[in-house]
Amino acid sequence: MTDPRELRVSDSERDHVVGLLHKALSQTLLSLEDFTTRTEAALAAKTRSELNAVLMDIPGLVNKDTVQDQRLELRSVLSKMRRRGRWDVPNELVLRCDQSWCELDFAVARIPYQLVRIEFDVRAAHVRLKLPSESMLDATALQVLNCRYVNKVRAGQMPGPQFVLNGKVRGGTLTITRPAALRLGSVMVRFPLKLDRIGD
What we know:
Domain DUF1707: 7-59
Largest sheet: 8 strands, parallel
Low-confidence stretches: 62-67
Mean pLDDT: 81
Shape: elongated
Structural class: alpha/beta
Protein name: DUF1707 domain-containing protein
Distance between the termini: 32 Å
Number of strands: 11
Number of helices: 3
Strand content: 35-45%
């Protein structure tokens, strides 16, 4: 499993840290020279550990915008369950499906976390995950037993969130894909033809 400290950071995360450095400068917690050096390091940071390093020794600095951890449990028994569109994704999901049809479409969902954990408790169900185009996947801890398992998400470093799967899938099917899509400004065009607005 990838160490969360080595996950890649986004431009918005870098900009947020620069804002915190501005705050520290205004409170005279940093000299102008130190502020300049740390800002350059923040803008050049590629991983979470590199970005956090510019803040760690600044006394009294509180990040009020830190997203709180959230947990969501989804249950489906002899039924159909679907999450898609601009839904809010927690950093921890528990999926309990028993003889059901379940789809979790993350393609244009709001994901404020760099790491999303999904725990499976699935029996004889048909489950489909659609991950964002720029995302990573770690399914090494997932146990798949007597199940048709199709994973079309290639491994590799991507700038988006990392999905970590664990738990058990017993019977049925599990399919993991990314959408065939093209982003045009605030609209995502998916194939077969479907439009999703991705701006808030």
